[in-house]
Write a structure and sequence with these properties.
Length: about 450
């Protein structure tokens, strides 16, 4: 109908067309509102699933790894026979150090027999083999070190908290049962009965295990003695190298590309390559580190200096991209105002733009460091998977000493047969998550501290 026809007078008696109310949605509006409601429901459901998955993951890690921070010790009297630990009777630690650890194992064995006899503990099937394997082999080494530190203990009866085996420790953590002990050649139901008797007598306690944080790794037969000391030091050394190298290089490259570099094909090519390097798999950087730093430069394998250099190469693209984004976020009016009052380009960048971009730069740097802290693949290729018993020295010498790293230590423990190592691996994951959480909280704090509003 044309506009002229619509303005013709209505015939007498004709019913005017019904007008739609703005307060009553039509069918199309109802469909649109229903689609929006469904989309919101989908979003809430996705968030709920993600939160539930994260909560389940954290619960699984905490339930499996929390027991790694507790350890079972047996408190028994041990007679330090001078004929065994100090045959020459000179109380000279240098001479006493020649006594083998196995000799101290005999003293612990005698101490276990004396304790069982003094408490009149009678258990069917309990033999010498059960008493010998009741305690960890690490208990012998600990007792030997205690005597070497204090030779005056020779000839005395000392009460020592001896580390129990992983099977006895696992019994009180629910990992070992009487049924599993009957089928395990490393323990027996009689050992578990003895553990219950000693627990009731107060000679067996499960307490906080600080050695899990400070001790180095242990052999496959001493899961109960394995710790994260060397791995934590190695990770700290590598993060120190990454921070010292990647932060100034990454920030300087970002400032040049964003503020000073001419816009031409060369800079476009550099920017594309930086973006591509950020997406390269981490194992490729491990291959590069193996070829460049170890095979070509001759740096030692399994050393924090090599791991730090490899992680620096891997972290640089992330820091450059984050820094350039922070520089772009500074309003152009800041630059124009500084140039307008006579500041040079250099003064404008370093006195005005860079301080305003600092929160984003620090946040990107810490996130890059947190990403590097959890990398495993490149460190495996440069030999940090090796078993390292000795602590590295203080920097700078320690940067060239053999060391491990937290993610590599977790990988090593998950490959070992003893179930106690899986418990250790879960505990190490908790420690790693604590480090990552602390670094992210630091990033949030620095952003809030240096943030400026305009």
């Amino acid at each position: 109908m044309t506009d002229a026809a619509s303005q013709l007078p209505r015939p007498v008696g004709a019913v005017p067309p019904a007008r739609k109310s703005l307060l009553e949605p039509d069918a199309r509006t109802r469909r649109r509102n229903a689609a929006e409601t469904r989309f919101r429901a989908y979003g809430i459901a996705a968030i709920a699933v993600a939160v539930a998955a994260l909560a389940w993951l954290l619960f699984a890690i905490l339930s499996d790894g929390a027991s790694a921070f507790r350890q079972t010790y047996a408190t028994i009297p041990v007679t330090l026979d001078a004929a065994v630990v100090d045959p020459k009777g000179n109380r000279d630690p240098a001479e006493m150090s020649k006594v083998l650890t196995l000799s101290y194992g005999k003293l612990l064995m005698d101490g276990m027999k004396s304790y069982v006899a003094s408490k009149n503990i009678r258990i069917d099937g309990l033999g010498d083999a059960d008493l010998k394997s009741f305690l960890s082999e690490q208990a012998q080494a600990n007792l030997r070190q205690q005597v070497l530190n204090d030779p005056e203990l020779v000839g005395q009866v000392v009460t020592v908290p001896a580390l129990t085996s992983s099977r006895i420790d696992g019994y009180f953590k629910g990992r070992v049962t009487a049924e599993s002990a009957a089928a395990d050649i490393k323990t027996s139901p009689a050992q578990l009965a003895l553990a219950d008797a000693m627990k009731a007598d107060g000679a067996l306690v499960t307490r906080f295990n600080s050695d899990f944080i400070t001790n180095p790794d242990a052999s496959e037969t001493r899961a109960e003695a394995a710790g994260l000391g060397v791995a934590i030091l190695g990770s700290l050394y590598m993060m120190l190298i990454v921070l010292v190298l990647s932060l100034p290089i990454g920030v300087a490259a970002s400032i040049y590309l964003e503020e000073f570099a001419p816009r031409n094909r060369l800079t476009d090519l550099i920017e594309v390559n930086i973006a591509n390097l950020a997406a390269v798999p981490s194992i490729v950087y491990g291959i590069l580190g193996l070829a460049a730093f170890i095979n070509f430069m001759g740096l030692p394998r399994s050393a924090p200096i090599v791991g730090g250099l490899v992680l620096t190469l891997m972290t640089l693209p992330t820091i450059i991209i984050a820094t350039r984004a922070a520089l772009k976020a500074v309003p152009p009016s800041i630059r124009d105002a500084a140039l307008g009052v006579g500041a040079s380009k250099m003064q404008t960048v370093f006195h005005h733009v860079l301080p305003l971009a600092m929160p984003g730069i620090l946040t990107g740097t810490i996130i890059g460091l947190a990403h590097a802290l959890g990398e495993t693949a490149p460190l495996l290729l440069i030999g940090m998977v090796a078993f390292v018993k000795e602590y590295p020295s203080a920097p700078p010498e320690g940067l060239f000493d053999p060391a491990s790293a937290l993610p590599v230590q977790i990988y090593n423990w998950t490959r070992r047969a003893d179930p106690a190592f899986f418990e250790r691996a879960s505990g190490a994951i908790i420690v790693l998550l604590v480090f990552l959480l602390a670094m992210n909280l630091l990033a949030i704090f620095l952003r809030r501290k240096f943030e400026r509003r305009w």
